Amino acid sequence: MVASGLKPGMTEVAPGWLAAHLLTALFTLSVTLWIALDLAALARDGRASPARLSALPLVAGAALAVQLLYGALMAGLRAGRVTDQWPLMNGAFFPGVTQSGRSIGATLFADPAIVHFIHRWWAWVVVALLVAMARALRRAGARRESVVLHSLFGTQIILGIATVLSGVSLWLAVLHQLVGALLVVAVVAGAHRLGQDRASDPARAMPG
Ligand code: HEM
User: Fold this and answer.
1) How far is the CA of 96 from the centre of ligand 1 (A)?
2) pLDDT tens digits, residue range 20-33?
């Protein structure tokens, strides 16, 4: 069972537990998909060596995990409602903290304005890494995977901005979460595709 973090008198799930729940679910989905893709490659073309996770997808996946963590904190802290503006936040680039005098940890992970600021701008670090990954896929001949990746992160950015501008419309927020999960699937599938090339490249294969 999932521990909700609910305490007597509380009617909402604690943001930290919500984030742990979302990340655990998406990590489980990712590992399951990776194993399924290995098995599919074995059944399809007898490829016995499992795919290897190479550096670029690893870094892109880690950056995406940070973004997902902050996405869950956004939802848990209702940080989307801090502002309905983009790119500025209530007229300023940097919103300032909601409550002063808190520890750095509490400010980085529990201050709604700071969480919102990090989520909206870290997205571009994720996009830059996913562009690099999509280009690597294209070079590896996986044009379809590259197009899917571009389409999903583009849609996700537009949905995120639209969610903010709408004052967190429920349907836009739900779609943003759904496309976030699809993006995880696309990144895992892309990483697996790049990892297959690496596993079958004799120059990079481990001795023995
Ligand atoms: C690669 C880019 C992004 C990813 C993977 C991502 C992912 C997520 C995820 C997983 C959530 C949690 C949804 C939930 O648990 O209900 C979330 C929430 C949110 N995101 Fe993003 N996001 C991205 C970019 C953006 C951008 C660019 C913006 C706006 C400028 C944005 C605005 C929001 C808002 C306002 C919420 C809170 C919605 C709510 O209260 O339910 N996101 N994001």
Assistant:
1) 20
2) 999 999 999 999 99
